[in-house]
Design brief:
The structure holds 2 protein chains of 2 kinds. A two-stranded antiparallel ribbon of chain A has the order 1-2. Chain A contains 12 helices and 2 strands. Chain A is mostly helical. Chain B has 2 domains: 2-135 and 303-367, Periplasmic binding protein-like II (D-Maltodextrin-Binding Protein, domain 2, 3-Layer(aba) Sandwich); 139-300 and 375-418, D-Maltodextrin-Binding Protein, domain 2, CATH 3.40.190.10. Classes of the chains: A mainly alpha, B alpha/beta.
Chain lengths: 314, 422
């Protein structure tokens, strides 16, 4: 504990008061975040059932991987890491995350660029764009489920009147379009969020840069690529990380639009099903733990790969 | 300590309620509403409130029984005192038996009035976990006017139904009714598809998902034939969207006059026959078709039953409420207004019920011989068994693998799930 350099009383006091101010938040975090997390990880190593979690027995890594010898020279791997349903859920989640974040970023950028220009009624448009984001996910998902209904849905009606499709498409039921349907709803819902974050970045760009570029007669596309994009990149990257974190644990949209459908079931859906529907609380806990690990690794990887500056240091 | 805790609990509860009205308690009943369930229940609860001075709140849940079960399990494993009475699916209560009050003693004086099969389905190791409220057994709904118009008989086999559906659908479409479909059922991947699937397979002589003794024989040619038949409907006589249909979706199509046949539970009868229904007076019901000669028709035993939570602060009032809701008068009223088959045997023979819902007395033998799901054989693993089964059926219907492949996969998964025993 010996300090090499004696600290001044003032800086010592500041450290103490910082901890005092932090303490309530740390206590709350410990109760609402750390405790459930640790408990979930613990249950992943037991044979707990939801009815009587108190009677859980430690079984080590058997929920993750276990080789079962049948005694006749054959055997089989059991556990999450050998479960094709789990890997399917992982693959579904990654696909969903990639496409939703990609399109949300592109559309969000376009909307942000439009909203960043001066035009009459801009305040009104800005507010209107936020509506999809303001509607609770569960409500918008149910609303879209009705709009996508193959018999009563308005979506098919419009597309048929426009002669884009010849007969009604069962958007959420057809295995080929189920993921597309989920993506459409998610992109509709979350693009405003991306637009808002990117717009915030755009507003930080000094106006005189554009004026200088205008005076020099530089093409707007070139201005966008050489001036705007590099300057708003940090904001865009933060937005992407936020969005990807959200998308990786997506649950509600999938659950409402295509319940129990293995073609769209994500990691969260898989975990919930095992935790509550099946008598597999420990297995579901193990799945939740892996979900946590995967999100953490992907996020750290992304931050590293893009050399994002999250600390605020220069 | 235990007594003391209970005592203070009662004291606290009583003193809290004393402020409202002396002696009266507040109860909460939870259930998923389909059709007119909420309306009729509220009416019955109003009478109960008037009679006892207690108040009862309805906590409504989503339509899907699979969704409800997850929530119930959460409440119960958290020992939540918020809900006193659960209305729970026939397959649900046995899985949650440990959380419910044993009703054997409280209902000893009335239990003989109930349909024995219903009571049996809710008895786990000698403990009555829920008092049967109403039963369910599906029917084949058909449009009498259309069968007459095209001079077709009421189908007895699935093949006949398929053909008739196609003839009428094509005919109606040629006359300009482009929204017409031949057959609608419940094809979404959830508990309802398990019911549909086991009916097809059993009626083809393919046996049960899991036999009564726990053995697994689902991977057989008859079962594959049944699933192949069902697959042939999707996109031909049934809309592609049927792969995501639950009860109310199917009813929506049938009741708006856009389907010749529908497989649905009894509740749909009262609604389709309601004064504002476009198909009122134009349809009837019959037993579900069979695979071929010598096969027997299968109707899945359904039903919803009332269980009292162990964590209810007012168990005595809750038990009284359960008994009240299931007495003869209320069952009779429910039978008349919602066309749900009652669990009190005498209601089937009541002349007023027969007049209002001619369907119900006719359905007595169907209900009594209904095919239960393998929830007794597979116990706490039932939900997972059902999920594996509906996934195999749904995959087959949506063209993800053949019936043979999916049944083989299902057999392997069930065996693995069973392990040393259910």
């Amino acid at each position: 504990m010996a300090e090499p350099v004696e600290k001044s009383t003032l800086s010592h006091q500041r450290v103490v008061s910082a901890w005092v101010f932090l303490a309530p938040m740390l206590a709350v975090l410990a109760v609402v975040a750390v405790y459930p997390l640790v408990r979930t990880i613990y249950f992943g190593f037991t044979d707990a059932s939801i009815d009587f979690p108190g009677q859980a027995q430690w079984i080590g890594f058997r929920n993750y991987l276990e080789y079962l010898d049948f005694g006749d020279g054959t055997g089989e791997f059991y556990g999450l890491l050998a479960d094709p349903d789990w890997w399917r859920a992982v693959w579904n989640t990654l696909r969903f995350t990639f496409f939703s974040v990609l399109f949300e970023t592109i559309f969000g950028m376009v909307i942000a660029l439009v909203l960043n220009t001066q035009f009459p009624g801009r305040a009104l448009v800005r507010a209107a764009v936020l509506i999809p984001w303001a509607i609770p996910t569960i409500v918008s998902a149910k609303m879209w489920a009705w709009m996508m209904h193959d018999q009563f849905g308005i979506l098919n009606d419009i597309l048929m009147k426009l002669h884009i499709i010849a007969e009604p498409v069962a958007w959420t039921a057809n295995p080929d379009t189920a993921l597309l349907a989920v993506l459409i709803v998610d992109i509709w819902k979350t693009t405003p969020f991306m637009a808002l974050l990117i717009l915030a970045g755009l507003q930080m760009v000094p106006k005189d840069m554009y004026e200088a570029a205008k005076l020099d007669g530089i093409h707007p596309v070139r201005v966008f690529r050489k001036v705007t994009l590099p300057l708003i990149m940090p904001a865009v990257l933060v937005a992407i990380v936020f969005r990807a974190l959200d998308a990786l644990r997506v649950f509600d949209i999938v659950y409402v639009l295509t319940p129990n459908n293995p073609n769209t079931a994500t990691m969260s859906v898989f975990a919930r099903e095992n935790l509550f529907d099946f008598d597999q609380f420990a297995y579901g806990s193990a799945a939740s733990t892996l979900l946590f690990l995967i999100i953490a690794l992907l996020t750290i990887g992304f931050i590293r790969a893009t050399r994002m500056n999250l600390g605020g240091e220069r | 300590m235990k007594h003391f805790g209970k005592f203070t609990g009662v004291l606290l509860g009583a003193s809290a309620l004393m402020a409202v009205s002396a002696g009266a308690v507040e109860l909460n009943i939870v259930h998923g509403a389909i059709g007119k369930d909420n309306e009729v229940l509220r009416k019955e609860l109003d009478r109960y409130e008037e009679m006892t001075g207690n108040t009862v709140n309805i906590v409504s849940m989503p339509e899907s029984t699979t969704d409800q079960f997850g929530q119930y399990k959460l409440w119960l494993s958290a020992k939540s005192p918020d809900i006193d009475v659960y209305r729970i699916d026939v397959i649900g209560a046995p899985q949650l038996a440990d959380h419910f009050v044993d009703l054997t003693e409280a209902t000893a004086d009335i239990i003989d009035q109930f349909v024995p099969a219903a009571v049996e389905s809710q008895t786990v190791d000698g403990k009555l976990v829920a008092l049967p409220m109403f039963l369910g057994a599906p029917a084949l709904y058909y449009r009498t006017d259309l069968l007459e118009k095209y001079d077709q008989p009421v189908p007895e086999t699935w093949d006949q139904m398929t053909e008739t559906a196609k003839v009428i659908m094509d005919g109606e479409r040629a006359e300009g009714n482009g929204d017409m479909w031949g057959f609608v059922f419940q094809g979404a991947p959830y508990e309802g598809l398990t019911c549909n699937g086991q009916e097809w397979i059993y009626s083809y002589g393919g046996g049960r998902i899991v036999e009564l003794d726990g053995s697994i024989g689902i991977n057989n040619p008859e079962a594959a034939e049944a699933l192949n038949m069902a697959k042939s409907w999707v996109g031909t006589i049934a809309p592609q969207g049927v792969l995501n249909y639950m009860e109310e979706d199917a009813r929506g199509v049938f009741q708006s006059g856009n389907a010749v046949f529908m497989r649905n539970w009894n509740y749909a009868y009262a609604l389709a026959d309601g004064p504002d229904s476009p198909v009122k007076g134009k349809f009837d019901v019959t037993t579900l078709p069979v695979g071929g000669e010598g096969d027997s028709s299968a109707a899945t035993l359904g039903g919803w039953h009332l269980a009292v939570s162990k964590y209810s602060p007012n168990p005595d009032e809750a038990i009284e409420l359960v008994k009240f809701l299931n007495n003869f008068e209320n069952q009779k009223e429910r039978a008349i207004e919602t066309s749900r088959p009652p669990t009190v045997t005498a209601v089937y023979d009541d002349p007023e019920v027969a007049e209002a819902q001619p369907f119900i007395p006719r359905w007595k033998p169907v209900v009594l011989n209904a095919l239960p799901r393998p929830s007794a054989a597979t116990k706490r693993k039932y939900n997972e068994v059902s999920s594996e089964f509906w996934t195999a059926v749904h995959d087959t219907l949506s063209g993800d693998g053949t019936a043979e492949q999916n049944l083989a996969k299902l057999e392997a998964k069930l065996k693995r799930l069973r392990g040393n025993g259910w």
